[in-house]
């Protein structure tokens, strides 16, 4: 017997006997604890106790008749009471004490009132209030020694092994134990085992019980195990760190447990009335047994999986669908899922209707990261848009898996508008409720998504003028304004020829402002956002470094020491553009970097074209020379024209066959875009296609093109230096002629001498000049053929059909066709020679061998 049970019994006995004063219940409890007897193993029959009482009784027949009557009524604790009375009859000292006490009580009552005899009323009649008060007075007159002896004997009886009792007594004792165990309290014959980890609780039943009763008890005990599992789950998961979804689930389970406790209370009431048996208890416990089993199974699964938020809802949703054939079980799981999904759907509603995340326990599928929108102009990636809000896969409920991307986009769209200072709320906002019919909340999410897409798209297109901004960028980065660039390059040519360290950026900004105001770009409302940036590398190095990212050559390219000397402003020059929120979501630093690479590539081609045009202008001086001395210039002029034709055709291809058509495609796509993600996709696709078709994403083509441009620049430098030396010689001769004698004969002699001297000098230098032009010509022709060959390969093998237009433009008269076909034949022959010859068939061998 537990200490709590002893305390309860002593208090109840003291209250029934109306004992006041003394040491109270604690004193008796201490004595009982000290005098606890070991477990009684001897078999004592209630029949012997009944016989002993009959022997001491003056009316044994009446006693036995009354005993049989009470036994037939199945009165609770009848046999223990008979055993107590038999013990009282054997204790002579106690009998004398009781007789003395009774005698004193009768004498005192005789002195105070008239002499009357008190007899116990018949058991078939009820005691009156006066008789009950008299009985209480008599019992209260007992001294504390008698009371202590009664309590000690009662404890001995209660610790008497239940297995030695009759079946009816065992059943009644087990019923009381079961009612306690069903609510988590240990009984006398049924005790709970300690739980290790996440195991289910087990119970030990008194082995001395009758086998039939023990079997029936074991059938009922799983309900107590389920109750223990559910109770532990509810108490643990109610803690704040397990999230609102688990809180809602435990609240729903607690509601169901109240109904279970009401059932146990009703069973206890039947037991006190003597109307409950083990069979009836087994019958009444059947309906809640299935409910408790499902609740315990869900609790164990959630506990083992450490589920929170969306994972808990996924588990409940799957259980609901698994019980499709069992309507009651499915209804129970549906009730739990609806209750648990309420806080999750509240977070979802705030996200898809207002763009706000209120997720204190990190349960929602969308997670917010601390990123600042002001850094979009600095980061060379789409980090803000892609990583400010991300989806956590294990937090997505299985019934929202298909809609996860739209849920993420809906809140992101509304959040962008909110961060611009506008409060937006979806006009079609309705409460989202869990249901087995997914169409209901799917339609609500679709409506919220369409509204958010429309709001943000209109905000960017109309209020922030996204298309106009893109057109402004196109004017400058894709050289849409021709007069502006001619004027700007004329103004900044001398400044950009200097080394980068010697350039004053403020002077360049002033020249840019002047060029903008004095050209058609003055009509652009966003021209003030255009800025100048001097890059640390030239365009070819920058492109090669970008292409080497995530490749084997990445470390080698990044760690390579710069081979070129300090580059000039022309090589480092680039435009930059100021873009503010929320347009920076579309025109971010990554997009601007692509624009810059396209611009620097075209700007480099423009620079080479201007150098070749300057050579053409200086070559006009060759008309002043005699016909015999100009024969060495023919090859140089032809090479210059081929180079100029190459550069101009490359520019035409990039600007009018790549960028302009792709721009119109993007512009048409933006008109039909339904959300901001489509706008991002179309804009990124436009830039990617331009980079690819302009040969900026292929390292082989880029390197060949770079060598061609370098050869053109070297040729122009050589021609310019040669023209300058020729001009200096001519000026020196003219100066000598003007300073000589005024005699006509002397001047004629000087003229003749000058012509002869000039012709002689030309003849002397002609061999070196002609050889240099020959080297430039051969290098340019071989690299151009290599470029055309690579372009033909990529246009056929990689289906890059737009690149074949370059071949048609550069080989417009079929000049390179024969050479290209010859190179193709040689390449196929080399590939054939590399292939191993086919093996001859093995000789036929005889089977006998």
TrEMBL record:
<keyword id="KW-0963">Cytoplasm</keyword>
<feature type="compositionally biased region" description="Low complexity">
    <location>
        <begin position="108"/>
        <end position="121"/>
    </location>
</feature>
<dbReference type="InterPro" id="IPR040457">
    <property type="entry name" value="GCP_C"/>
</dbReference>
<comment type="function">
    <text>Component of the gamma-tubulin ring complex (gTuRC) which mediates microtubule nucleation.</text>
</comment>
<feature type="region of interest" description="Disordered">
    <location>
        <begin position="100"/>
        <end position="121"/>
    </location>
</feature>
<dbReference type="GO" id="GO:0005813">
    <property type="term" value="C:centrosome"/>
</dbReference>
<dbReference type="InterPro" id="IPR041470">
    <property type="entry name" value="GCP_N"/>
</dbReference>
<dbReference type="GO" id="GO:0007020">
    <property type="term" value="P:microtubule nucleation"/>
</dbReference>
<feature type="domain" description="Gamma tubulin complex component protein N-terminal">
    <location>
        <begin position="175"/>
        <end position="463"/>
    </location>
</feature>
<dbReference type="GO" id="GO:0005874">
    <property type="term" value="C:microtubule"/>
</dbReference>
<protein>
    <recommendedName>
        <fullName>Gamma-tubulin complex component</fullName>
    </recommendedName>
</protein>
<feature type="domain" description="Gamma tubulin complex component C-terminal">
    <location>
        <begin position="466"/>
        <end position="816"/>
    </location>
</feature>
<dbReference type="Pfam" id="PF17681">
    <property type="entry name" value="GCP_N_terminal"/>
</dbReference>
<dbReference type="Pfam" id="PF04130">
    <property type="entry name" value="GCP_C_terminal"/>
</dbReference>
<dbReference type="GO" id="GO:0043015">
    <property type="term" value="F:gamma-tubulin binding"/>
</dbReference>
<dbReference type="GO" id="GO:0051225">
    <property type="term" value="P:spindle assembly"/>
</dbReference>
<dbReference type="GO" id="GO:0051321">
    <property type="term" value="P:meiotic cell cycle"/>
</dbReference>
<dbReference type="GO" id="GO:0000930">
    <property type="term" value="C:gamma-tubulin complex"/>
</dbReference>
<dbReference type="InterPro" id="IPR007259">
    <property type="entry name" value="GCP"/>
</dbReference>
<keyword id="KW-0206">Cytoskeleton</keyword>
<comment type="similarity">
    <text>Belongs to the TUBGCP family.</text>
</comment>
<dbReference type="GO" id="GO:0031122">
    <property type="term" value="P:cytoplasmic microtubule organization"/>
</dbReference>
<keyword id="KW-0493">Microtubule</keyword>
<dbReference type="InterPro" id="IPR042241">
    <property type="entry name" value="GCP_C_sf"/>
</dbReference>
<dbReference type="GO" id="GO:0051011">
    <property type="term" value="F:microtubule minus-end binding"/>
</dbReference>
<dbReference type="GO" id="GO:0000278">
    <property type="term" value="P:mitotic cell cycle"/>
</dbReference>
<dbReference type="GO" id="GO:0000922">
    <property type="term" value="C:spindle pole"/>
</dbReference>
